[in-house]
Design a protein that fits this description.
Bound molecules: S-adenosylmethionine
Strand order of the largest sheet: 1-2-7-6-3-8
Family: Belongs to the tRNA methyltransferase O family.
Protein name: tRNA (N6-threonylcarbamoyladenosine(37)-N6)-methyltransferase TrmO
InterPro entries: TrmO-like_N (IPR023370), TrmO_C (IPR041369), UPF0066_cons_site (IPR023368), YaeB-like (IPR040372), YaeB-like_sf (IPR036413), YaeB_N_sf (IPR036414)
Oligomer: single chain
Helix content: 10-25%
Number of helices: 4
Pfam families: TrmO_C, TrmO_N
Strand content: 25-35%
Number of strands: 12
Keywords: S-adenosyl-L-methionine
Shape: globular
Length: about 240
């Protein structure tokens, strides 16, 4: 087998601190904002000259969290309820022969901090700390194919899930001036029902937790309703 070695050009800074509850594709939650942080020798201004003319970027990255877990030729897409098997190349599963991911994100701006070059992005589906292999402009004339067939994932996933929040949790969100979109981000994450398919079949109330930014969010699922009970600030 041939091998190629690639350089990591930077890392993703994301509100999603764990795999659980990250949207399954980019663009589903535009309120999720993050950064592509490029480090020397890839942090030179010249390397991104002209990039601001593009509204969206392709990010090629490593599924680093699952990279050492191997792969198999068939996977069970959550989209199909976790019971139907499809070939790995017919899915966007993270467990692949080469653990490489591809996401289109919106470019919100370019800035610089402590010698690093920062591309502000939104709509990401990337875990915090994801290593970046490459960045390319999204070209609508070639990359947008409205007549293309989406197979078993022909439209954005839809759930009937609703979301409510306890008063203390709602107040907590209001007070986070650094994250004005926190409440809407939580609501949208929960509306897409992040539970694995086998848990969705369970009866009765279930308790869950996730970390967004440095907040631990706890909620209860009852039928098709999520109720956020508590938000705790992590150290
Ligand atoms: N848009 C990309 C693609 O098609 O290659 C990713 C699709 S994959 C189905 C999206 C999921 O990958 C997310 O819901 C999250 O659970 C997972 N994920 C995101 N970043 C990851 C990382 N660095 N390592 C492992 N899994 C990751």
């Amino acid at each position: 087998m041939n091998h190629y070695q690639f350089n990591i050009i930077g890392y993703v800074a994301s509100p999603y601190k764990q795999k659980f509850a990250i949207p399954r594709q980019p663009g589903l939650i535009p309120e999720a904002t993050g950064q592509l942080v490029l480090e020397p020798p890839f942090a030179d201004d010249s390397i991104v000259r002209g990039i601001e003319a593009f509204s969206h970027l392709w990010v090629v990255f490593v599924f680093h969290e699952t990279a050492d877990k191997g792969w198999s030729p068939m996977v069970r897409p959550p989209r199909l309820g976790g019971n139907t098997r499809k070939g790995v190349f017919a899915t966007r599963a993270t467990f692949r022969p080469n653990p490489i991911g591809l996401s289109v994100v919106k470019l919100e701006g370019v800035s610089r901090k402590n010698g690093r070059l920062i591309l502000e992005i939104s709509g990401l589906d990337l875990l915090d700390g994801t290593p970046i292999l490459d960045i390319k402009p999204y070209l609508p004339y070639s990359d947008a194919l409205p007549a293309a067939s989406g197979g078993f994932a022909d439209a954005a996933p839809h759930t009937a899930m609703t979301v409510s929040m306890s008063e203390p949790a709602a107040l907590f969100c209001q007070q986070q001036t650094r994250y004005p979109q926190l409440r809407i981000l939580i609501e949208k994450v929960l509306k897409q029902d992040p539970r694995p398919p086998y848990k969705k079949q369970r009866e009765g109330e279930q308790q869950y937790g996730m970390t967004l930014y440095n907040f631990n969010i706890k909620w209860i699922v009852d039928g098709e309703h999520n109720h956020v009970t508590e938000i705790i600030q992590l150290p």
